[in-house]
Design goal:
Rossmann fold, alpha/beta, 332 residues, 8-stranded mixed beta sheet, Dihydrodipicolinate Reductase, domain 2, 2 domains, 14 strands, 37% helix, single chain, 6-stranded parallel beta sheet
């Protein structure tokens, strides 16, 4: 399969590294407005380097395109690529509004091409293991959870993150990972309540969110841009027969406890790493490619990605008005 990459920043380089070593895949072209960035991605993937994305598509004729651009550009490029009959793997979040995300999905469906949104947390081994443990009933019935995600404030060329109109802020860009995963565990969200600090001059944005699910279950989420330490993820999932804990700074596997007798150099943008031999970013794009080849449904659907955007928007709205927001119809 011939694949091209549009955008060679932090995520574009991850795609270039992984696709460049993936059997049965040829990275035909990479493009970035910054020539040096495109050349670096080309060097690790074996692709041709471009600064004009339309020229790249015309010359290289890829079957699939990975869109690793700033969030505010996702819709424009996905619609264009769909019109050209190309499958699209797009980084998360899908878009900044629910209407845009739905329009992207509809355009790809109309043209008969596949669209995948890169909610990579579902591919992290510890998170997938926790999901499997919950589904198997190892902790009984899961009733509540806490998720935390801390990273440095985006720096360097990625200053578009600092503009909420382009990134959506810490909830839409960072916390959306845990929003998606919490929904994977507990189902659909009934209401949200959120608080967000105003971005400081020193580069800090902090958000606290409570999600109440239709089942009555609760999840508390924390997202933090400006953390001075290494990128950190933590979660705790509690059931009536046990608890699952994970801390990326402390352990390399899950800490599962059950009741007695119960069976059972600073990057511009920090991204989480996996302590196992499995690279979740590699596994994710490999899974999407297999879905294209075999016609399978992905682990994370476009509908899942759209719902995550809708919930993140509801959280931002709750933070603005200082009140809980019921789900359904939140779209801007």
């Amino acid at each position: 399969m011939k694949i091209a990459i549009i955008g060679c920043g932090t995520m574009g380089m991850i795609y270039a590294h992984n696709l460049g070593k993936m059997p049965g895949v040829q990275v035909s072209g990479v493009v970035d407005l910054i020539q040096e960035s495109a050349d670096q991605a080309a060097a690790v993937s074996g692709a041709a380097s471009y600064t004009d994305w339309e020229e790249m598509l015309e010359k290289e004729q890829p079957e699939t395109v990975a869109v690793c651009l700033p969030t505010y550009l996702h819709k424009t490029f996905v619609l264009n690529l769909a019109q050209r009959g190309l499958h699209v793997i797009c980084e998360k979040p899908a878009a900044l509004t629910l209407e845009d995300a739905i329009e992207m999905e509809a355009a790809c469906s109309k043209q008969g091409v596949r669209l995948f949104i890169g909610h990579v947390v579902r591919f992290f081994p510890n998170y997938r293991n926790a999901f499997d443990q919950v589904r198997s009933g190892k902790i009984g019935e899961a009733k509540m959870a806490q998720f935390k995600r801390y990273g440095s404030y985006p720096q360097g060329v990625d200053l578009w993150y600092h503009d909420r109109a382009k990134s959506g802020g810490v909830i839409m860009d960072l916390m959306i990972h845990d929003i998606d995963f919490a929904c994977w565990i507990f189902g659909d969200v009934e209401s949200v309540y959120a608080s967000v600090t105003k971005p400081s001059l020193s580069g800090m944005e902090y958000a606290q969110v409570t999600l109440k699910f239709s089942s009555g279950d609760i999840a508390n989420l924390t997202g933090f841009w400006g953390y001075p330490g290494p990128f950190t993820t933590q979660f705790e999932i509690s059931g009536n027969e046990g608890i699952i804990r994970f801390d990326s700074n402390q352990v390399q596997s899950l800490d599962l406890k059950v009741l007695s007798g119960v069976n059972g150099q600073i990057d511009a943008v920090q991204v989480p790493t996996s302590p196992t031999l499995h690279d979740p970013y590699y596994d994710e794009v490999k899974h999407f490619i297999e879905c294209i080849r075999e016609g399978n449904e992905p682990i994370v659907s476009v509908a899942d990605a759209c719902r995550a955007v809708e919930i993140a928007l509801a959280c931002n709205r709750s933070a603005q008005i200082g009140l809980p927001v019921c789900m359904g119809g939140i779209s801007s």
